[in-house]
Amino acid sequence: MLVSRKRSSIDPGARGFHQAIADPGAVYSDPAAILADARLNRRQQLKLLVEWTQQLLDHHVAETEHPSFGGTLSGAQDADLLRQLGSAIGRLEAETGEGGPGVVKRLWQRLKSPQA
């Protein structure tokens, strides 16, 4: 479940970070929970937020191309989650300079471009 609100028992610190990056939405309830996790450094937080955003966008593309794919969230929930992710990423980019300019913008461009 890419965007599930259900949280697992994965410890995102140390080795668990690599498990959490596979599905941040299964570990964290929302982007604010990633920002509040003191076990993560800013770079890890940014990676988790960007990965969650990418997974959500990929999920959207799959639903668009294959309506029978089935989603776990409504369009309004997806949009709200994307806004939260974008805000959190922007905040971290401003604080750290990590991720380069406009991570969210590049992800949205990828979503809007025709798939090969």
Low-confidence parts, pLDDT < 50 over ≥5 residues?
Answer: 1-9
Cα radius of gyration in angstroms = 14 Å
Topology pattern, helix = H, strand = E: HHHHHH
Overall geometry: globular
Oligomeric composition of the shown chains: single chain
**DSSP summary, beta strand count:** 0
End-to-end Cα distance: 25 Å
Average per-residue pLDDT, rounded, comes to 76
Description:
With 116 residues, the chain is mostly helical. It has one domain (16-112). The protein has 6 helices and no strands. The longest helix is centred in the middle third of the chain and has 24 residues, at 42-65. The two termini are 25 Å apart. The model is unreliable at 1-9 (pLDDT under 50).
Task: Please summarize what this structure is.
The protein is mainly α and 116 residues long.
Key terms:
globular, 116 residues, mainly alpha, disordered N terminus
What order do the helices and strands come in, and which of them pair?
Blueprint: H1 16-20, H2 24-27, H3 31-36, H4 42-65, H5 75-96, H6 103-112
